[in-house]
Design a protein that fits this description.
Elements (H helix, E strand, L loop, with lengths): L2 H4 L28 H12 L4 H4 L25 H4 L3 H36 L3 H29 L7 H12 L3 H26 L3 H28 L5 H19 L5 H6 L4 H10 L1 H10 L3 H7 L5 H9 L10 H20 L1
Helix pairs in contact: 2-6, 2-9, 5-6, 5-7, 5-8, 6-9, 7-8, 8-9, 8-10, 9-16, 10-15
Length: 348
């Protein structure tokens, strides 16, 4: 059965052409580069893996709670709508909300695949081209992995949300290579890491935990790639150019913050959409989740030099300035360690 037949909602065509125009850059200097990027490239080559052999796909998902996540993680938990549901209806909500979230992971990973291929063409550094080539393979593997999870284990999928589609459109269609880095490597990948971690660390189903742990092991390198490239580049820009990048980052952060209300799920299930979204928007769970989403983004934005008054004011208003001093390298090391722990459990 095709993906189209698994979509819970109608999808507007199975292809999405994004118009754009950018220069393809060849680099004839093959020795010059940075040691940090070269080391990251070596690491990217060494840590390639195959979802066919690394993940135990024989594991089943519980039909009443596929990933084994706590009900408190559902944004309408304890709402009047939720409290009226019977056991079967709550099981259906769990399956749909988890399929919806994994579907956005899947679509986002395809966006990363396209963006990283664009980076290979655009970036004026041979070391960056080398590393981006390893990331293209990473992203293809991630698309393959989430597609298999949805097809074989959920047998259910959702189309891309309008907010994610809009952000991908902005990142892909922009002709400047650094905007692709900023939008994908720093913002979208940084947000994804926090969302993946939420499942990796709370899922009672080991298949769900392993999928996200292994993807996170790669994604931590991808965010580091964006940080290393932009940290050297942004000091070279004029203040006006940096202001423009800050404006883009602020708008993207607000857009991403508001994409987890689940509108498509509530509409599909026939729930009162406005009531569900209003509850989700004001819930303490959503406030904490939204804050945690930016734990990887804020310190990276500061590190690459986009730390003017506008972005600091926006992050202060969002209540996420406390993440500015987070040690992203320690988080990345932890991501690698957790992935290795999943390998050890499977080996045992």
């Amino acid at each position: 059965m095709s993906t189209e037949q698994r979509y819970a909602r109608p999808v507007e065509g199975l292809e999405w052409p994004v118009p754009g125009q950018f220069d393809t850059v060849f680099e004839w200097e093959y020795e010059a580069g940075t040691e940090s990027l070269r080391r990251l490239y070596q690491k990217g080559k060494r840590l390639q893996w195959d979802q066919e052999t690394r993940i135990d796909w024989s594991q089943d998902l519980d039909p009443e709670n596929p990933q084994g996540l706590p009900d408190e993680a559902i944004v309408i938990f304890d709402s009047p709508v939720w409290n009226k549901l019977n056991r079967k209806e709550r099981a259906n909500v769990r399956r749909h909300i988890q399929a919806w979230q994994n579907s956005q992971f899947l679509h986002g990973e395809q966006g990363a695949l396209v963006c990283t291929a664009k980076i290979v063409q655009q970036v004026p550094s041979i070391d960056a081209k080398f590393y981006a080539a390893t990331q293209v393979m990473d992203e293809a593997r991630h698309v393959e992995t989430y597609a298999r999870l949805l097809h074989e284990k959920f047998d259910l999928a959702y189309p891309i949300t309008p907010t994610l589609r809009r952000l991908l459109n902005d990142v892909i269609s922009d002709s400047r290579w650094d905007i692709t880095y900023l939008g994908m490597q720093v913002l979208i990948e940084g947000l994804a890491l926090a969302a993946f971690a939420n499942i990796r660390d709370t899922a009672q189903n080991s298949l769900a935990g392993a999928v996200n742990a292994y993807v996170m092991q790669d994604e931590a390198r991808h965010v580091a790639f964006g940080r290393l490239a932009l940290r050297d580049y942004y000091p070279q820009l004029t203040q006006a150019e940096r202001d423009e990048r800050e404006e883009f980052a602020v708008e993207a952060c607000y857009l991403m913050r508001d994409r987890f209300l689940g509108e498509e799920v509530w509409e599909t299930l026939g729930f009162p959409v406005e009531e569900c979204m209003a509850w989700a928007d004001k819930s303490e769970l959503m406030k904490m989740f939204r804050s945690a989403l930016f734990s990887r983004i804020v310190p990276t934005i500061k590190d690459i030099g986009l730390w003017g008054p506008k972005i600091r004011r926006a992050y202060s208003n969002m209540g996420i300035m406390g993440f500015a001093e987070v040690d992203t390298e320690a988080l990345a090391a932890r991501d690698e360690q957790v992935a290795e722990e999943f390998d050890a459990k499977r080996g045992a």
